[in-house]
Each structure stands twice: as C-alpha cells, then as structure tokens.
Amino acid sequence: MEDLTLQRQQIIASLTEQQPENIADAAMGHWQQLADEIITIIGEAGFASLYERSLHLAQATFPWLPSGTLSPQTPPNSHRFAELGMRLAEQTQAHARAAHSLLLTIFTDILASLIGEQLISSILRAVWGNLASVTPDKEPNNE
Amino acid sequence: MNNKITIRRLPTGVPGLDQLLGGGLPEFSFNLIAGTPGSGKTTLAHQIMFSLAAPDNRALFFTVLGEPALKMLRYQQQFTFFDHSKINQSIRFVNLSTELLEGDFDRVLARIATELKEYEPSLVFVDSFRSVVHSAESEGRNVLDLQRFVQQLGMQMTSWQATTFMIGEYLASESESSPVFTVADGILWLSQNLHRNSMVRKMQVVKMRGQSQAPGLHTFRIGDAGLRVFPRAIVQPNQAVGPAPAGLTDRVSMGVAGLDEMLGGGLPAGYSLLALGPSGSGKTILATAFLAEGVRCGEPGVIAAFEKSPSQLLNNRLHALVSAGQVGVIDTRSLDLSIDETLHDMIRMIDRMQAKRVVIDSLSGFELALAPEFSEDFRGSLYRMVAELTSKGVTILMTSELEDRYTDLRVSPGGSAFLADAILVQRYVEIAGQLKRIFSIIKVRGSDHSKDIRMFDISAEGIEIGERLSDYDGIMTGHPRANS
Predict the structure, then answer these.
(1) pLDDT (tens digit per residue) in B348-394
(2) All residues at 6 or more sequence positions from B477 whose CB lies less than 8 Å from its CB, including other chains
(3) Helices (DSSP H) in B339-455: which residue ranges?
(4) What's the Rg (C-alpha) of chain A?
(5) Do A122 and B97 touch (CB under 8 A)?
(6) I need a labelling partner for B149 at 20 to 30 A (CA). Which of A20, B71, B142, B347 fits?
C-alpha cells in the first residue's frame, strides 16, 4: 500500500515538475483531466465537495487560493477551474507550482482515505497512465 | 435437428443463488433487484458483477442518486469479492446524476448509450433505478413517459446483448403499479423480516422468464464474503420420507450392548430414531455411543449439538472423536438460525466427511436456536429436513427433552414424533427408594422390536442395559408396584 502512495506522489511530482511556460494553464488542464474521470465515477456533486474541501485545507498554506465554491450545476467542460488558474497566474512560477502540487496531494489524500489507495491508483492510471509507467519499479502490488 | 434457441445461463457467483434461479442467470436478460433499504441489493449486484466481470466480459455500473457513489465504493471494498484488479479493465463505474438532475429521460438514455458504445460491456447495472422513477414522479410526468423510458432501456440493453440489472428500493405494494416489473425478465426480491427481536434476511425469485425457479422465500446471510443463500429444502416428489422397505435388511449397530437385539437387529439404515427422555437421562450418551460405533465400523458421523456451548461441548468420548476428525460438528452459533441454513451446513459436512450417521442433539435446543419466525413452523421444516437427510442415505438420531409427567406419557413433544421412523423413550422411576432409569422401544417402523421395559445404568463405559422389569406393574406411572 505504501508503494501505491509513493507512486501517487510521484505522479503528482512529475505533473508539477514539468516545465511548461505557464503553470496556471497546465494546472487547469490537469484538474480538468482529473475531474472528467472522477465526475464519471462519483458525479458532479461528489467531485465539487471534495474539491472545495481540498481548497479549504490548502488555504492554510496558500491563503490566496480561491475558496472554490463549485456549483454542482456547472456544466461540464466549462471553465470550472478558471478561478484557480487566475490565482495561480498571479503568483511566481515556484509558488504556483508548490500550491498546485499541494492541492493535488490533498485532494487525492482525501479520496484515498475514503475509497482506498488501490482505487485511487487505478483512477490516476486511467488519467495519467503514461506518467505512472515512468516509474516501472513501482508496479502496484495488489496485496 | 433442434432449432430452438438455447439460452446460456450465467453462474452468479453467489453461493446458493444459481439453484434458486433454476440454473443461473439467463444471458441478455433484463433483471430487477428490488427490496427495502438495507436488504443487500447493492451488495448482491456487486457480488454478481465482480464474479462475472472479465476483460472479455466487461461490466458497466451506473450509479444514480440514492447512495453516493463515494460511499458505495468505500463500503463495498470491505467485502472479499471486491477485486481491485478488475477496476477499469473489466469494471467501470459511471455516475448519471447530472443527466438525471436535468430531468430529461432522453439525455439519461443517450448517456447510457454513449457509455455502452465506448466501453462495450456485457453486463450493465443501474443503481438505483428507483431514483429515476422518483425523479419522474416529482416532476409530475405521467406513467406513460416512464413506461416508455423503461421499455426503451430494456430494448436498448437487449439489442446491445447485455445482461442488465436494475436495482431499486420498492415496497411490496408498489410492485403492481410500476412498469419496470412488467418489462423485467427476472425479479429478485430481498427483504428483512423482523419477528420479535430477531431479523432474518429472505430472498424471493418472483419471476424468471424461461426457467423454473425455486418458489417461495429463501433465507440468506451477508458475511465478509458477501451473500450466501440457503435454498429452502423442498421434498422432491420421488423423495419419500424414510427409506424404501428394502432398506430394512441393512441395519446399523447402536453401540450399546443388547440394544440392537431390542430394535430387531439394529436400527434400519436410513431411518431416523427419536430418543426421548427427561434431562440427564442419558440421551447424549446414547448419541455418543451411536457415533462411536459408526466410527468403529468405518462410518464417519456428524453432530449438530445445540445443548452446549462449543467450549464445554460434549463428553470426553465425543470430544476425542471430534478431535480425531472422525465426527464433524455443525456450528450452531447464533439464535437466529434458519432450518435451511443448518441443513445446508449439515449436508456440506456430510458430503465432505462421507458421513453415514447424523445426530441432532437436541430438537428442543434446535428449536430454541432458530429465529422465532422459524420456530412457528418447526414441525414442517423439520419434516423437510429429515426427508432431505434420509434421502442422502444417512441414519439419524435425534434427541428430545421429555417433560417427566408421571400422570401421562407424551411421546410426541411439539408433535415431532410422527416424522421419526423409530422411537425410544427414557424415564426415571422410583424403585425401592431409588430413582432408576428405564427405557423402552416404542416404535420401529416396519420392523419387529422388543416391547420390554428395561432398566439401564450409565457407567464410565457408557450405557449398560439391565433386566426387564417383569416384577412390576404401573412402571410408566413412575410409581411401580411389585406384582407378586
């Protein structure tokens, strides 16, 4: 199980350590990819409440993050993460990257505490399968 | 050549359920799993899904409102059947709440169709379908609209060649008015029945097109491994209670010197013997002798002991037989057993041990261990149980507590004596200032037997049969008089 947690952290690290020109745009893209998969499984309302809670916890470290009230009625593929992108863009690249990484970590931590590391792992593999395979020595163990 | 279509039957992976369904689930059928909240619908659906799903037999599980998908995933993982390696490759969860919130059935259908095309499943689950119905009602849609939706969905699934399960909370009274009940090929009804303080789970296959399901209500349990169904024992037409007369030539020894002679040469194989007597009269010791004699003759035995807790179980002799693995013990743990569950445990143990002898010690304890609901039909259920066991060719010894009333002799406590092929009664009598044990054989169906009333003693070696009480009259009154 620790292997899977490690693998999750590595996926988040490789997402946030990429050096795109604009971390804010990259972050919005990551969240949209993750949201698409998770909303399919647990629905809009389920995702929205988890996202909101993650922002709330991350604000302890980065108070400038949005408070993030996603309306469950937000139509899919709209600019759901526009506010997050805006706030990230106002920060330095390093700061924005750290906040993005923390937010992803908190979000997946909460989800893991609810549905388990194994299920999270298969969700992340479905979204960012290529990143998971970057670390071949971390093959999930199904014990 | 037979050109009729052959419907493939899928094994559900739920112990006992295939038997209830009449051999498994018809492929491409449209099924409804209905029941009250907490009756185990979602667990049943997951258990079937995890058992059947494979990379070439994918399953799509749609969650609608009702139980939040997050919680469902959280709790279903507690069951041993939840196999993470099947998620994504063989199983996909899809939430439909957005489509439903918009209140448009056509959008729900369209989303289902899109997902079907994308994932190409052979198994489809919709949990809970009830939410779709509720949404229709709250918006004042007419029944026709909903009926059209259900029919379209049914059609869509069948032409997609998917075996489908709709899961929903229903009350019994609603079953007639809901269109889904008409459209469904199969209906599984789950319920929790409360009687006094006990709860018993039951399942009914209300409908299963094209095959003969086991009628009536059947008990089931939910444990770590999910559901386990105990199909109700039903006396088959060719399964008479008791053995055929030819069986009389084959006799089994009781393991008590002199008793076989009194029974006319031993107890006929496949018979059920009821040993009646007051507390402490030696019924369990007789049962132990019966099992020990079986082991000596190479016939393993099985005992369902309801009188004692497993720790203080049994006397030393019986304990030795059990420890040596020559006698199997049926777990009689709880006070909410059903006869069928006990019977299933017994049959499993009999088959495993190739047992020839079975002891139920005692019927009085058994009746107490059952959920109150089953106690009411104890006689009927016992009848089916004895029929099922004797049809397997085992010889049964049942003990029963007999209230020692000296004014009358009742050999049929609770009316259970009629189903025994042979009856032995033990009593206490007062002779010369001592309380003595006596016994007599009252009945051996179709066989000659001794009519003596004999004294007997219990020593370290077991039961020792004494002389006939020929010098006394009025023994059965408890106060014999010397007749000299």
Answers:
(1) 899 999 999 999 988 888 887 787 777 777 887 888 888 888 888 89
(2) B406, B407
(3) 339-353, 363-369, 372-375, 378-391
(4) 15
(5) no
(6) B71
Closest by CA to B188, choosing from B213, B156, B224, is B213
Domain with CATH 3.40.50.300 in chain B: 9-230, 245-482
Instruction: Domain B245-482: state its class.
Output: alpha beta
Q: How far apart are CA B51 and CA B106, in angstroms?
A: 32
Phi-psi category of residue B40: left, alpha or beta, with phi > 0 → left and psi -120 to 50 → alpha: left
What secondary structure, in 3-state letters, does chain A show?
A: CHHHHHHHHHHHHHHHHCCCCCHHHHHHHHHHHHHHHHHHHHHHHHHHHHHHHHHHHHCCCCCCCCCCCCCCCCCCCCCCCHHHHHHHHCCCHHHHHHHHHHHHHHHHHHHHHHHCHHHHHHHHHHHHHHHHCCCHHHCCCCC
Model confidence pLDDT, tens digit, residues A46-65? 898 899 999 999 999 999 99
- The nearest alpha carbon in chain B to A141 belongs to B85
Q: Are B69 and B75 in contact (CB under 8 A)?
A: no
Question: CB distance A122–B87 less than 8 Å?
Answer: yes
Residue for token digits 């709209």? A78
Dihedral angle of Cα B340, B346, B350, B355, to the nearest 10 degrees:
-130
- CATH class of the B9-230 domain in this structure: alpha beta
Give per-residue pLDDT as tens, B181-200: 777 889 999 988 887 777 88
Nearest to A42 among B77, B85, B95 (CB): B95
Q: Which two tokens stand for residue B261?
A: 């002679």
**Where on the phi/psi map is residue B244: left (φ > 0), alpha (ψ -120 to 50), or beta?**
beta
User: Which amino acid, residue B326?
Assistant: Q
Contact A122 B73 (CB under 8 A): no
By C-alpha distance, which of B464, B466, B443, B468 is closest to B264?
Answer: B443
Straight-line distance from the first to the last Cα atom of chain B, in angstroms, rounded to the nearest whole number: 85
